[in-house]
């Protein structure tokens, strides 16, 4: 079993930045593909970014490409999402998730464990 705890959300103005963190425990962190998803009220959970075990492969949703950066520090069992140039449409609960495979995958059903989420609100 894997436990994930997200932090770093908050309220920012459009154009601002936030850095989200996801701390993992329960299994060897370096064995996981990690993903970030987000979900706005009334909408489906949406893929944001994924990073492979070593951090050498990264994939972003088109909606965040060029603005968000995913990274990981395996020594700290933590994955990060640096969010710059935030837009009101980025407002959502952001979730960290684990996939136990090797490929970078983008569907929520392909991820096995989820954190509790952290709220990101971007004012217009």
Layout: helices, strands, pairs:
Layout (H helix, E strand, L loop, with lengths): L2 E5 L2 E4 L4 E8 L7 E7 L6 E6 L6 E3 L7 E6 L4 E6 L8 E8 L13 E2 L3 E6 L1
Parallel strand pairs: 2-11
Antiparallel strand pairs: 1-3, 3-8, 4-5, 4-9, 5-6, 7-8, 9-10, 9-11
Give the structure's gist in a few sentences.
This protein has strands at 3-7, 10-13, 18-25, 33-39, 46-51, 58-60, 68-73, 78-83, 92-99, 113-114, 118-123. The chain has 124 residues and is mainly β. The strands form two sheets. Strands 2, 4, 5, 6, 9, 10 and 11 form a seven-stranded mixed sheet that branches. Strands 1-3-8-7 form a four-stranded antiparallel sheet, with no helix packed on it.
Structure write-up:
This protein has strands spanning 3-7, 10-13, 18-25, 33-39, 46-51, 58-60, 68-73, 78-83, 92-99, 113-114, 118-123. The N and C termini lie far apart (39 Å). By secondary structure, the chain is an all-beta fold. The strands form 2 sheets. Strands 2, 4, 5, 6, 9, 10 and 11 form a 7-stranded mixed β-sheet that branches. A 4-stranded antiparallel β-sheet has the order 1-3-8-7, with no helix packed on it. The protein contains no helices and 11 strands. β5 and β6 (58-60) form a beta hairpin.
């Amino acid at each position: 079993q894997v436990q994930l705890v997200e932090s770093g959300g908050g309220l920012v103005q459009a154009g601002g930045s936030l850095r989200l963190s996801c701390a993992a425990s329960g299994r060897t962190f370096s064995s996981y593909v990690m993903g970030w998803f987000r979900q706005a009220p009334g909408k489906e959970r949406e893929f944001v970014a994924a990073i492979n075990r070593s951090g050498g492969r990264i994939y972003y949703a088109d909606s965040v490409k060029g603005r968000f950066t995913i990274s990981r520090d395996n020594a700290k069992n933590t994955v990060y999402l640096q969010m710059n140039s935030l837009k009101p449409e980025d407002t959502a609960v952001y979730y960290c998730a684990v996939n136990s495979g090797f490929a970078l995958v983008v569907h929520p059903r392909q991820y096995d464990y989820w954190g509790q989420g952290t709220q990101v609100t971007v004012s217009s």
